[in-house]
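Lab notebook: predicted structure, single chain.

Context: the supervisor wants predicted structures on file for every construct in the current expression panel, including those that have not yet been purified. This is the next one on the list. No modifications to the sequence; it matches the entry in the shared construct table.
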Amino acid sequence: MKLETIPQWRRGWRFQWEPTQDCFVLLYPEGMVKLNETAGAILNQIDGERSVSSIIKNLEALYPEAGALEGDVLEFLSEAQQNGWLTKEA
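Prediction complete. Output recorded below exactly as produced.
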């Protein structure tokens, strides 16, 4: 995934906080994906307007103790895209 890409949710998928699971989840027609804290923090940044670069900057500001996050975020978002959670790049 490129830094200038603006991630978009795949049609039919919804990201939300699930109180009964006490975590963020991805809901889709066939079920649900329960997300760990890190995945939830990254995916919570996807709003259809922010680029990957902006998402990385926001996360680095929220979690300064984590250091540089570009590589990890790019890898995770690429995997999310491969898993079909996000639309493919144009």
